[in-house]
Amino acid sequence: MKKNTILSAKNISIGYTIGRNKIKTVHSKLSFELQEGELISLIGPNGAGKSTLLRTLSTSQALLSGNLSFKGKAISSYSEKEISKNIGIVLTDSTQTGGLSVYELVSLGRQPHTGFFGRLNNRDNEIISEALEAVGIDHKSNSYMSELSDGEKQKAMIAKVLVQECPLILLDEPTAFLDVVSRIEIMNLLHKIASEQNKTILLSTHDIEQALILSDKLWLLSKTKGLQCGVTEDLILNGSMDSLFNKKNISFDTNHGVYYPNINWKKKIIVTAANETLLHWGINALNRHNYACMGIEDEDTANYALLRISSKDNVEILNPNKISSNIKDSKLQFNNFESFLEIL
Amino acid sequence: MNASHTSKKIEVEKLLSQKGTKYIVILSILIVVLFVMNLIIGSVHIPFDSILDILFGNTVEKSSWNFIILGSRLPQAITALLCGAALAVSGLMLQTAFNNPLAGPSILGINTGASLGVAIVMLFLGGSITAGIFSISGMFAVIIGSFIGSMLVLGLIIFFSTLLKNNIMILIIGIMISFVTSSIISLLNFFSTAEGVHSYIIWGMGNFSGVSTEQLPFFIISLSLGLLISIFLIKPLNALLLGSRYAENLGINITRIRNLLLITVGILTAVTTAFCGPISFIGLAVPHVARLMIGTSNHNILMPTTLLCGSAIALICNLICVLPGETGIIPLNAVTPIIGAPVIVYVIINQRKIQYFN
User: Fold this and answer.
1) Chain A positions with Cβ closer than 8 Å to B
2) Number of A:B CB contacts under 8 A?
3) Gyration radius (Cα) of chain B, Å
4) How close B108 gets to chain A, by Cα (Å)?
5) Alpha-carbon distance B1 to B6, whole Å?
6) pLDDT tens per residue across all 344 residues of chain A
7) Model pLDDT for residues A192-203, shown as the tens digit of each residue
8) What pTM was estimated for this model as a whole?
């Protein structure tokens, strides 16, 4: 189903000015589009320019050159008030809002729509209550912001940006400092908002795991390769994830969607297991102990020890004397990984 | 879902408006009471019905009473009322704008800047002018001097705040500016006449009796203007609680609001300092008293409460000042720290428990 484009950039340069005249360009000739109803994760190494890009898109930082248009019009033609009703942000900035109730904080998001003293009418209150319920903190609406946990505070900030009623929401590392439960809850919430409310949500994150699961598109940003955009699965399968962090000793596991350090193997061992899961975790433990793993068809089983994992409590080593010449048995059996790893 | 929404909405709104109106009503009544007490209490005993007569324009037995009430006590009470409000509101705006709960007109050196402006006019340009008796043009010059002095220091503080992110450092810069400004004032005093120095010192002790009946209209209008602008700044101040990046995203023009805010603080502190001397602690402590009392940082309620609290506390201070009666008047700057400093110490010690500190 073809979606509408809400933001499009043609050959833009982003960066900032140092002092009076010097310009530091962080990226140049970037072109991309953002569609309605999608959750996009912006991933890349520290210092790649993710925050600069987000600040430029939110018009908080000036565009150095190029064309950036929002809903078909040049973004520079929008007034501050119009921007406030169209682009919302969520950051990790600290605030002075500890003394406000959650309800009062979220109601600040209605400022672009309210009159002189920020007075709320019935419609405003309805929108606020709906947002509090959507993020799941309506039971805390009368608590002080200072009493909330970090995860709840972020949800409150997300509720605030929801009541701003913007079609585009930008988040700068919204799940930093949060535990895995909060991270999943928030990513899930953002995904739901994007698809159910047809909003465009772009977030920068270091949580690769959740990004790959829930994002419709990925933006990979690095100093060396610039910006690569694409559907999540396409970028995973065409190897873009592997070359994103330009480091020789880090690789991307395309099967499991995680980055892992390359092993510094000193010894070899042959591994066979009853299923994929046992094989994967067996190799994981052996790699950690500096063993390179081979398949049973690959090598001559007589020259190396063979590890056979039948189940989680049945692990056998054949030819254990290849591991250590002190071992005299021809076969060893263990009933958990802990005892078998002691041999290595 | 709709029924629970509506009832929750009403619950929350009731809560918010209850918090606010209760204290505003109590403070307003308190202010009226204190105002009347300020008219009654003084070195000369004047019966209450005579006071009412004088206020309504009727004649009384002693014509000197007329002068005492209309020429001395009434202007003093009005001055205290407006000065207290002006300083408290200035303190609140500085605390929110600089994201610093310990900001205030005196600690940031703004009062001292205004004092320097006054000192230059009084000692350098004015020669020997006795405190309390100025010609209107002379007084106007003092006010201009005061305004320029306070704006200069405000400008310096803004400049440093763009360089420094650390709040404590800004306060220390403010204190350093205060020291430098004080040394310049000392120099001016050193090279001035005995009467000039005397005037300046007496002025520096702070008092609410510095406004004559002719100057009262100007005083009332300029401070009311400043307070009115502050009321209009309530919505942007709430946005500034989020920090400048979020506030910008909510449609606030940060530069314009900050400039308006600082000019307003400039007017409020300049006029109060010019007429009453540099008054410390009201700007710093009253916003905290208000926040602790009403339990919210929402400026919709906090701004009016701070304003009224400031007036009430200033009226109380004025009463304390005239307590000695015939033996004289206690300097204002001897009274305000005794009330203000314990509040600040309390807030600092309890900061972990205080919600707006976190």
Assistant:
1) 58, 60, 80-81, 83-85, 87-89, 91, 93-101, 103-104, 108-109, 111-112, 114, 116-118, 122, 125-126, 129-130, 138, 141-142, 144-147, 164
2) 112
3) 21
4) 19
5) 9
6) 678 999 999 999 999 888 778 889 999 999 999 999 999 999 999 999 999 999 999 999 999 999 999 999 999 999 999 999 999 999 988 888 999 999 999 999 999 999 888 889 999 999 999 999 999 999 999 999 999 998 999 999 999 999 999 999 999 999 988 889 989 999 999 999 999 999 999 999 999 999 999 999 999 999 988 999 999 999 999 999 988 988 888 889 998 899 998 888 888 888 999 999 999 999 999 999 988 888 888 767 678 888 899 998 899 888 888 887 777 788 888 998 998 888 87
7) 999 999 999 999
8) 0.87
d(CA B10, CA B258): 35
Q: How far apart are CA B128 and CA B131, in angstroms?
A: 9
Task: Inspect the interface and report whether the beta carbons of B298 and A104 lie closer than 8 Å.
Answer: yes
Q: If interface means Cβ-Cβ distance under 8 Å, which residues of chain B face chain A?
A: 5, 8-9, 12-13, 15-16, 96, 99, 232, 234-235, 238-239, 241-243, 245-246, 248-253, 291, 295-298, 300, 355-358
Residue B196 amino acid letter: G
| Complex ipTM | 0.89
* Of residues B5, B242, B251, nearest to A97 (C-beta): B242
Structure tokens at A42: 């912006």
- Ramachandran region of residue A179, left (φ > 0), alpha (ψ -120 to 50) or beta? beta
CA distance A245 to A239: 12
